[in-house]
């Protein structure tokens, strides 16, 4: 049985301090890595831009953490129209864990946008939670081609109807708006299974403002978490439940990290796998053709033998 912490000279504050030290080191590693690799990625991107269909081929070999969210209709669009993809850490000097995903498209039958860029801010909440949050990104769908069935537009309107509250007046701001009610009802009446990959652009996560983040970071630096006032904890839970009930892509943070930490740095690896897969497919096709040709020859030979057996033999001339 584990000993109670109260029976040791170690406090929870001591453990929290150790965790903060590791967190600070990890953040500094990401910051330094970003500084060193940014020019390399820029050079790589210049080279990759000369390879036709590079990013569609990479997506064809995407890891399960990404591929599971791409529906057949999404695949048709991405494979035919995606021209470029990139990841940047736009807050690298201060918070290198914030990321931006940029997708570039050629003209297509689904939407008018040439670029879809989604930013994720790394934020900390007063209760100690930390992670990525975002804002919905609108897509200008062509008539009758909305792969999200109108959900993304509803998310935009609901988000705009309730601006992020500051740390000081957050409680007064969290009233459910008519737009949020409409979104919640639509989500309730819509089967969320098999939702388009493009619903990812509607991911929001927790509603944590820059001001609330700054206060939480300051508190964490002092070695603590903001103490909850009477009623705060229940209201925070209500806010969190509301946020989650309005979320059309709950796994948005995980998918963003899969793009940033796996697909982006491993792009050449996935492209090479796609080439090898194509080569194997071609080889299998050629082998199949060869087998068919051999079978045809065998059948022809068998037929010739049968004809020879059936053909009457000439009588031998008597001497």
Automatic annotation (TrEMBL):
Region: Disordered, residue numbers: 279-319
Biased composition (Acidic residues): 279-308
Domain of life, per lineage: Eukaryota
GO BP term, pick one: nucleosome assembly
A Pfam family assignment: NAP
SUPFAM superfamilies with a match to the protein in the record: NAP-like (SSF143113)
GO cellular component: nucleus
Matches recorded under Gene3D superfamilies: Nucleosome assembly protein (3.30.1120.90)
UniProt record similarity statement: Belongs to the nucleosome assembly protein (NAP) family.
Protein name (database record): Putative nucleosome assembly protein
Organism of provenance: Lachnellula occidentalis
